[in-house]
Amino acid sequence: MNIGAKGRLLTLAAVLAIAPLAAQAQDDDSAVFRTGLGMTHLVFTDRSASTSKHTFGIVDFGASKSFGGVFVGFDTELPFNQGGTPTNDEIVQTAVADFTLGYAFRNRVSVFTGWHYAKYDFWRSGVLFSQQTDRGPYLGVGYAFLIGKGQLSASLAYGDFNSDSGAGPGKSTGTSASLTWSSDFRHGLGYYVKLRLLNYNFELDSTPPSGGSEVKKTITTLAVGLVY
Predict the structure, then answer these.
(1) Is the Cβ–Cβ distance between 39 and 221 less than 8 Å?
(2) Torsion over CA: 182, 156, 222, 59 (sign)
(3) The domain spanning residue 140 has which CATH number?
(4) 53-67 tens-digit pLDDT
(5) What is the pLDDT of residue 21?
(6) Which residue in 29, 69, 139, 218 has a CA-CA distance of 20 to 30 Å to 11?
């Protein structure tokens, strides 16, 4: 692999860290896959100013394909062992997916945009008491630092989503920041460690007759896995 191709592939790791994907590949246009296990910590403050905290396991999966400097990617997190506030017998069910399109420059800087989908169902004592769905675009920038035989990839993105809750439609805005360390084992098999923080605020289009109009959520994810 020449230096330019390696730089673009390492930058691809930084860019898709929005979702994120730590990328290793044999050549410039190879497809790259990521599978890992991790933990997610979700802090959700609803319209009544009640805060729910949930920690649960996830399967972290991603795939990307580059075409020279242009790349596309898909990322998702599949939850299991969902937990919540024990005193309220509360759990959360989530569904998350990100589709990314971007360009990786030879200096390991990347720019990207994409489409985000997320759904959060909050259950208390077996009853659905809160729900929120986010759909919309994001825009960001990434950079890959070469350290020895590995790379430290960083990305920052801003999202502006159309959202819906049980109280009606609204708008969610916020940021996503991610750090991913990745390196090779051997023969094209690598590993990654990913840390991601999302911070979004949701506001209803119209003020409801009761309760507030804002919902806040902070999501922290740590995952470890293989790149192939």
Answers:
(1) yes
(2) negative
(3) 2.40.128.90
(4) 888 899 999 999 999
(5) 43
(6) 218
